[in-house]
């Protein structure tokens, strides 16, 4: 990608255009490389600005990436309703909970940039931002989690509002953790390939996320129903929705 030279931004409109160009350039970089490799120096070079000028629009690399995380989250949420609807359309032949979880896992698998950003959020992206930027991001994150919770609750009303929100929040945290563990370093990959006794430690992201969320959802439903063996599992007719 070639850099785009900019003249000095003098109006609010010009500043908005430049700010969006920085975001678009960073988003393009994330398609090419993981979050860890996105540097402010390279971002500045590609967008055609001095690093000091980029910092006039975003206080740090992390601030850029947090905004992109919010954008990616909202784009994902916009696609979830039709995905959920399609997943549970013939729920009479299966279980809504399992199908909803499968749709969650599939849609997240299809968005590796979002998953990579989520995995870096707490450990990296929130470490080099001011309280003002942190607060702005957290408000957006809470709004996104609430949107996810309401959507999940609309398809699995047995959860109740509180547990639907809990499931939504934990879904985001689990996604980040599973993504990290399912994308090991080259050294770990070499170990898995050469030592069969350790190969079982290598996780498939979609399968691991789906299994974890199935257990979580079943547990929340069992608690909501007041039946230790109940829920949305595959144990018997009492579990069927």
Automatic annotation (TrEMBL):
Location of the HTH tetR-type domain: 16-76
Domain of life, per lineage: Bacteria
InterPro entries listed in its UniProt record: Homeodomain-like_sf (IPR009057), HTH_TetR (IPR001647), TetR_C_34 (IPR041483)
Native source species: Streptacidiphilus alkalitolerans
SUPFAM superfamilies: Homeodomain-like
Keywords carried by this UniProt record: DNA-binding
Name of the featured protein: TetR family transcriptional regulator
Portion annotated as DNA-binding: 39-58
